[in-house]
Amino acid sequence: LACQAVNTVVIEDQKWKGFNTDGLGAMQALGCPENKTIMVLGVGGTAKSIAWEAIQKKNNVILVGRNLQKTKSVAKLLGCEYLDFNKRRIWSEAPYDILVHTTPTGMQDDECLLLDSEIPENKIVFDVVNKKTKTALIRKSKEKFCDCIDGKDLFYEQAVLQFMLWFKKEG
Predict the structure, then answer these.
(1) Fewer beta carbons within 10 Å, N or C terminal of the chain?
(2) Around Cβ 82, how many Cβ atoms within 10 Å?
(3) What sign does the dihedral 151-156-159-165 (CA atoms) show?
(4) How many CA atoms are closer than 13 Å to the CA of 171, on its beta-carbon side?
């Protein structure tokens, strides 16, 4: 896999084959954007898959990570821009259309990775964290009139894609 991350395996010709449904599932949850600037917070497997698919759809991707070396490495792998999360003023003022949060922050608690001043106004905010209640990022983004997509939408789109892979169905 080009994004070097697997979340789905199937057996084809008696061999295991890996796929990743994060990227395509995220693009479908976002309405398949093209020619947008997408800022992806995080550089793990989900971030890589989403960034890779976004690039394939002719979007400009900016990766923002806390570990600068890993962020640079992933950006080089994907061929996209990157910014250092620790230089908050620089990345929080960068122009973008869509913010995608892929870190585990907010999964176990009600934490928000972003300061209130860093939450954009009137943008699309996608938090891949899937939990019963809205994450702090989604709640705070709605207060700033953002269109919000949460992890449940990604989870649904992934399930459809995984079903198609496992049972050889066409989309």
Answers:
(1) C
(2) 23
(3) negative
(4) 13
The residue with tokens 């960068």 is 94
Percent of the chain with pLDDT over 70: 96
**Which CA distances in Å does 99 have to 44, 64, 80, 123, 150?**
16, 10, 15, 8, 12
Residue 76: what residue type? K
Residue 109 burial class via C-beta count within 10 angstroms: exposed 0-12, middle 13-18, buried 19 and up: exposed
Q: What would the pLDDT profile of 73-96 be if each residue is shown by its tens digit?
A: 999 999 999 999 999 888 888 899
Token couple for 86: 């620790």
For residue 97, give the nearest of 151, 48, 57, 49 by alpha carbon.
Answer: 57
The pTM of the full predicted model, rounded to 2 decimals, is 0.90
Q: Give the 3-state DSSP-derived string for the chain, with helices as H, strands as E and coil as C.
A: CCCCCCCEEEEECCEEEEECCHHHHHHHHCCCCCCCEEEEECCCHHHHHHHHHHHHCCCEEEEEECCHHHHHHHHHHHCCEEEECCCHHHHHCCCCCEEEECCCCCCCCCCCCCCHHHCCCCCEEEECCCCCCCCHHHHHHHHCCCEEECHHHHHHHHHHHHHHHHCCCCC
Distance CA 112, CA 137 (A): 6
